[in-house]
Design brief:
globular, alpha+beta, 17 strands, single chain, 294 residues, 4-stranded antiparallel sheet, 4 helices
Amino acid sequence: HGRQVLVDEGVIAGELHDGATAHPIGSAVADVTDVEAAVSGGCRREPPAADTKPRVKELVSSLRAEPRTFNRYAGRDSVLEVVTHRTQAKLARIDRVTQELQPWLAESWTASADGLTYTLKLRPGVTFSDGAPFTSADVLFAFRAIYDEKMPPILGESIRVGGKPLAVSAPDASTVVVRFPSAFGPGIRLLDNLAILPRHKLEPALNAGTLAKAWDLSTPPSEIVGLGPFVLKTYQPGQRLVFERNPRYWRTDERGQRLPALDRLTLEIVPDQNAEILALQTGKIDFTQTEVRP
């Protein structure tokens, strides 16, 4: 179709954030991290209203491998990253194009004179996809989880300075204080590594010492709640993952419309590259998650 991809939650048209590059669909690859808007000229759009751009209801992409877990605190691979980006959110994130640190779940922060302590103000009114409120208790849970001795050191090791963990406290429900053990130039850019998972769903497993096994592939999708733009609706092993719009997602576009603009995102599991290319060329998928080797 020669379609142009509009991504990053409806903000950028024709440019893909997080290091991706736009290409005509059917001839190359669009590697997307935050697909939340639509495709201009796509096949799954509804008739446009007067004086508005066409709105795409659904996009279909591909994955080369099966997920191993839905628990970002227990694993780290490309498929899990894709799932986490769609369903979860961070306190702050690095824009992969500009390299600027963007407020996300934390709407603002201040630093102490010595640069060791950061005070973060959480965005008010944010809820998880099941309606539970997001508070500083979820942030404390996240740090407790990644530093727990029974958890794989996947995230815990990456969020340390000089081998020492960060000290995190919460004076109230909307404030988080992060103290570094020693001077660290990047500061809270480190928080780009940490998705905030729901304490109300996962704390019992952490207390029982079984968090590493939580949110495995047998978990009902309804139990996998988050703060991201989408929720996992269905997972069919060997076939696909289907994500639907999170109606409680907190972000809006420049017109004040709730994001994401997309209603559904389907990720077809296509392990073979040749089959993936054919699906791209024939319009069965709109883009791929990985680069295609020549």
